[in-house]
Design a protein that fits this description.
Strand 8 and strand 9 form a beta hairpin. The radius of gyration is 31 Å and the shape is flat. Strands 1, 2, 3, 4, 5, 6 and 7 form a seven-stranded mixed β-sheet that branches. Strands 8-9 form a two-stranded antiparallel sheet. It is α+β, with helices and mostly antiparallel strands and 802 residues long.
C-alpha cells in the first residue's frame, strides 16, 4: 500500500513538471498531496524527506529574496563573466528578423494545429497568367547552350524582354510601376526559369532579392522611392548591390571599404557628403548595372554629424557612371553566363542624401541588410533548389524508364532505385520547404532562422539531386550540348552553395548560433538583462527558464520511455511521425539548454557541436514543411510513400546529429545521461527501407498526377527542346508499352524469334500478325522518339577552333 502511495506522489509531481504549471499552482497542489500522504501513509521518515525536498523547492520558487541571495546573484555574476563578447554586427544579425514556426520547434512544444493553420501560399489570377504566358514565353526564347558557350551572355532580345515585361520589378509595388507580386510568385518565377537556364534565373532573381529595390522600398526616402523604383521596375535602371570584399565576406565587421564624412563639390555647389573608397567583388549584375548599392564603414573624424567618430556600416546608392566608379569588368563564375564582376572606387565623393533612407539611416546599414537578407535566403535560393529538383525528377524518371540495359529499363535495377528514390524524396522536401518559407515572407514575417535553414538545405539537397542525376544519366549527362538538360545545373551547384552566406558558415554559425538565442524563450532576454545589469529582471527570467528546462527533461524522458505513443497529434495516417517529431523537438530543447549551461560562451567556438544541434532544428523544420505541404494538398494518398520517405530520412538525420553531438560532447558523463534520457531503449529510427525506396522509384517512372504537381514549374517546351524531347518520348510510352508486351509474350511463347534491332522486331511481329498496322506505327513512333531522347551532341572539329 505504501508503495502505491509513493508512486502516486511521484506521479503527481512528475505530471506537474511535465505540464510546467505555475510555481504557485505547483506549491499548493504538492502541499495538499504531501499532507494527505503524511496523514494516510504512516511513514514518518519518508514523509519527512518528501517535506524537506518540497520546502526547499517551494522556497526557491516562491520566495524571491532567498532565491536572489543564494542563487540568482552568484549565477548572475558568473553569467556576466561567461557571456561571450558580441560585436555590434553580431548583435544586429542575432536580433534581426522574426521568430516563427522554428521557435515552436526549438522550444520543444510544436503545436501542429498552429502549423496547419498557416495560410497556404497561392498565386492570384494575375500571377498565374504571368507564369503561364510571360514566363513561358521567356523560357521558349532561351537557348542555354548558346548563352553559356557561345555568347556568354543573354541575347539582347532576352534582356529587353525581361525589362519590357518588368521581370526586374516583380516585387516592386504597383504604385511605383512594379508588378507587386508576392514572395511566393517571385519564388515560382525563379524556379521555373532555373529549369531552363540558371544563368537567366540568377540575372532575373537578383534585382528582386537583396539589393537596391528591396532596400529602397523598406528604408528609402520618398524622393528616392519616387525616382528610382519606377525606373527599376521598368528596367530603365539595372541594379546591383556591392557588399562582399576581399577580407569581408561573411564577416562584415572586417569590411575595409571606407566612407569619410566631409564637404565637397557636387553640381557646382559645396555640399555635405561622403568621400568613398572601396574594392568589391563577386557582385552579380555589376558588369551591366546602371545603379549600384554600396555598403561601407562610415567615419566622421571632423564631427560634422555629431560627436560620434566611428558611425558604422552605411548603405548608399549611386549611379554607375558617377565619376570615379570603376565598373564593367566580369568574373566568370564556374563558366556560367550570369553577370558578375568587381566594382572599385577611390576617393569618390557623393552627397549625403545618397544614403538610402537619408541622414537618419546613417550607420544603420548592417541592420537594414540583416532584416532584408531573409528575402534572398528564404525565396531565391530555395527556388533554385526546388527548380533543380523538379527538372531532375521529371527527366531522370523518364530517362530511367526509356534507357535499357540487358533488355530492361535501367530503373528496374536496385542499384538505380536508390538514387531515384533520393531524387524523388528530396524533390518533395525541396518543394515543401520552398512553399512554406516563401509563404512566411508573404505573411509579413522575416523568418531569419527558417530562411537560413531553407538556404542551406535547399542548396545541399539540390547538390545531392544533381549528383544522383549525373550518376543515372551517366554519358547522357556528361556530354555537353544543346540536348543536355543536366550538365549546366550540375556545374553551377556551387553558386547556390556559396552565395548569401557560404553553407559552411550558415550551418556552423547561423542556424544554431542565431537560432539558439532567437528561438529560445529566455536566452536572448537573459542576455539583454545581463548586459543592462538588471538582476531583478534576470531573476524572473531565470526562474522561468529553470521551470522550462525541468519540464523538458521530464517530457523528453517520458516520451522516450513510452515511445511517444501518448502524445496528442492530428488524426492522420502520419500520426506516428507527428509524435516522433514532438519527441525530438523536446529532445532538442533539453540538449540545447544543457549545452549552453555547461559550455556557456565556449559553445560559440564549438562550431561542430552547435552545427549538429542546428542539424536537429533543420530536420524538424524540413519535416514540418513536408507535413504542411501534404496537408495543403488535401492529403492525397498517392503522396504517402513520398511523405513517409521524407519524414523517415529527417528523423534519421536528427538521430544521427544527436548521437554525433553526444559522442563529441566534452563532458562524457553528461553526454551519456542525455543520450539515455532521449533514447532510453536504444536508437529507434532507421533510414527509409529498400521497399519504400522501391515504391518511390517505380512511381517516379510513371505518368501521374503527383508527377505533374511536383514538377509543375518545370519548363518542357516542344520535342525539339532538351527536356521536351525526353518528355515526348516518355508520353508515347503509355500507348507503346502494352503493344511491346504482346511482342515479348509472343517471343516467350516461341511464336516469334528475337531480333536485336527493335524496328526489325516490329516488322516481324506485324508480318506474323502479332500486332496490327496501327500498333506497328505506334511502336515505330515511340522507338524513334526513344532513341532520339537518348542521343547526345557531337560537333565537327571546326567548332572547337572558333
Amino acid at each position: 500500500m505504501l508503495a502505491i502511495e509513493i508512486i502516486i506522489v511521484i506521479a503527481i509531481a512528475w505530471t506537474l513538471m511535465f505540464k510546467q504549471v505555475k510555481p504557485v499552482t505547483w506549491t499548493i497542489t504538492m502541499a495538499i498531496v504531501l499532507a494527505l500522504f503524511t496523514v494516510f501513509a504512516c511513514a514518518p521518515i519518508l514523509s519527512t524527506i518528501f517535506w524537506l525536498i518540497f520546502v526547499i523547492l517551494a522556497l526557491f520558487a516562491n520566495v524571491k529574496f532567498i532565491r536572489m541571495a543564494l542563487f540568482t546573484k552568484p549565477f548572475f555574476n558568473r553569467f556576466q563573466k561567461i557571456l561571450p563578447p558580441m560585436s555590434s554586427t553580431e548583435r544586429d544579425a542575432i536580433e534581426s528578423g522574426d521568430v516563427w514556426w522554428e521557435g515552436d520547434l526549438f522550444a520543444g512544444r510544436p503545436n501542429w494545429k498552429k502549423l496547419h493553420a498557416i495560410p497556404q501560399p497561392k498565386l492570384t489570377a494575375e500571377e498565374q497568367a504571368f507564369l503561364d504566358h510571360e514566363v513561358e514565353t521567356l523560357c521558349s526564347m532561351i537557348n542555354d547552350w548558346e548563352i553559356v558557350h557561345e555568347h556568354k551572355d543573354m541575347p539582347a532580345e532576352v534582356w529587353q524582354y525581361l525589362k519590357d515585361n518588368r521581370f526586374f520589378g516583380m516585387v516592386i509595388a504597383k504604385e511605383y510601376g512594379g508588378r507587386g507580386f508576392s514572395a511566393f510568385m517571385h519564388s515560382c518565377v525563379v524556379a521555373k526559369i532555373a529549369t531552363r537556364s540558371l544563368s537567366v534565373a540568377v540575372n532575373t532573381m537578383v534585382p528582386n532579392s537583396l539589393g537596391p529595390g528591396e532596400l529602397l522600398f523598406h528604408y528609402g526616402t520618398e524622393a528616392q522611392k519616387n525616382y528610382y523604383l519606377p525606373r527599376l521596375a521598368k528596367g530603365e535602371e539595372v541594379p546591383c548591390f556591392a557588399l562582399t570584399g576581399i577580407d569581408a565576406g561573411s564577416d562584415a565587421g572586417a569590411m575595409t571599404d571606407i566612407g569619410v564624412v566631409c564637404k565637397g563639390e557636387y553640381q557646382g555647389q559645396e555640399v555635405l557628403g561622403i568621400r568613398l573608397s572601396w574594392n568589391k567583388r563577386y557582385i552579380t549584375l555589376a558588369p551591366v548595372a546602371t545603379v549600384l548599392g554600396l555598403a561601407f564603414k562610415l567615419f566622421d573624424p571632423d564631427s560634422l554629424l555629431g560627436d560620434k567618430k566611428e558611425i558604422g556600416i552605411t548603405v548608399c546608392l549611386l549611379p554607375a557612371n558617377h565619376p570615379g566608379v570603376e565598373i564593367g569588368r566580369r568574373h566568370y563564375p564556374v563558366g556560367m553566363a550570369f553577370m558578375n564582376g568587381p566594382i572599385k572606387g577611390d576617393n569618390v565623393f557623393v552627397p549625403l542624401d545618397w544614403v538610402i533612407g537619408g541622414p537618419k539611416m546613417i550607420g544603420q546599414g548592417w541592420r537594414m541588410l540583416m532584416e532584408c537578407l531573409s528575402i534572398g535566403r528564404g525565396i531565391s535560393l530555395p527556388a533554385l533548389g526546388a527548380g533543380g529538383g523538379m527538372l531532375n525528377y521529371r527527366t531522370v524518371g523518364a530517362y530511367a524508364k526509356l534507357r535499357k540495359q540487358f533488355k530492361v529499363s535501367i530503373g528496374e535495377f536496385e542499384g538505380i532505385e536508390a538514387p531515384l528514390a533520393r531524387i524523388a524524396g528530396y524533390t518533395y522536401i525541396l518543394e515543401a520547404c520552398r512553399r512554406m518559407t516563401a509563404g512566411a515572407v508573404d505573411l509579413k514575417v522575416k523568418p531569419a532562422v527558417a530562411s537560413a535553414i531553407a538556404k542551406y538545405h535547399s542548396s545541399e539537397l539540390n547538390r545531392q539531386v544533381f549528383d544522383d542525376s549525373m550518376d543515372i544519366h551517366a554519358g547522357r549527362a556528361i556530354q555537353l550540348g544543346p540536348r543536355n538538360y543536366v550538365g549546366h545545373g550540375y556545374i553551377a551547384v556551387p553558386v547556390g552553395i556559396t552565395v548569401e552566406g557560404a553553407n559552411i558558415l550558415t550551418r556552423n554559425l547561423i542556424i544554431f548560433g542565431q537560432g539558439a538565442i532567437r528561438c529560445h524563450p529566455f536566452v536572448l532576454k537573459e542576455m539583454q538583462a545581463a548586459a543592462s545589469h538588471d538582476a531583478e529582471q534576470f531573476d524572473q527570467l531565470l526562474k522561468s527558464h529553470i521551470g522550462f528546462a525541468m519540464s523538458n527533461v521530464v517530457r523528453t524522458l517520458s516520451f522516450g520511455l513510452t515511445g511517444a505513443k501518448f502524445i496528442h497529434t492530428p488524426i492522420s495516417p502520419l500520426a506516428y511521425y507527428y509524435k516522433q517529431l514532438t519527441r525530438m523537438s523536446s529532445a532538442l530543447a533539453m540538449s540545447a539548454d544543457f549545452a549552453m549551461l555547461i559550455l556557456g560562451g565556449a559553445l560559440k567556438r564549438k562550431e561542430s557541436l552547435s552545427a549538429r544541434l542546428g542539424d536537429v532544428l533543420s530536420g524538424l523544420y524540413l519535416a514540418s514543411t513536408v507535413l504542411k505541404y501534404h496537408a495543403d494538398q488535401n492529403s492525397p494518398m498517392e503522396d504517402l510513400p513520398y511523405v513517409r520517405w521524407a519524414l523517415e530520412k529527417c528523423l534519421w538525420d536528427i538521430q544521427t546529429a544527436l548521437v554525433e553531438f553526444f559522442h563529441n560532447f566534452s563532458h562524457r558523463a553528461m553526454s551519456h545521461i542525455l543520450q539515455r534520457v532521449i533514447f532510453p531503449f536504444g536508437l529507434p529510427y532507421k533510414k527509409p527501407s529498400d521497399q519504400l525506396s522501391h515504391q518511390l522509384a517505380q512511381h517516379m517512372m510513371k505518368d501521374s498526377a503527383l508527377r505533374d504537381r511536383l514538377t509543375y514549374l518545370c519548363y518542357i517546351g516542344d520535342d525539339k527542346q532538351s527536356v521536351g524531347r525526353m518528355e515526348a518520348a516518355f508520353k508515347k510510352l503509355a500507348a507503346a508499352e502494352p503493344i511491346e508486351q504482346k511482342i515479348k509474350m509472343a517471343i516467350h511463347a516461341k511464336q516469334l524469334s528475337r531480333e536485336t534491332d527493335f524496328i526489325k522486331q516490329i516488322d516481324k511481329a506485324l508480318a506474323a500478325n502479332i500486332i496490327n498496322q496501327q500498333e506497328a506505327s505506334i511502336l515505330r513512333e515511340f522507338e524513334t522518339a526513344r532513341i532520339d531522347s537518348l542521343l547526345v551532341d557531337d560537333f565537327a572539329p571546326e567548332y572547337f577552333k572558333k
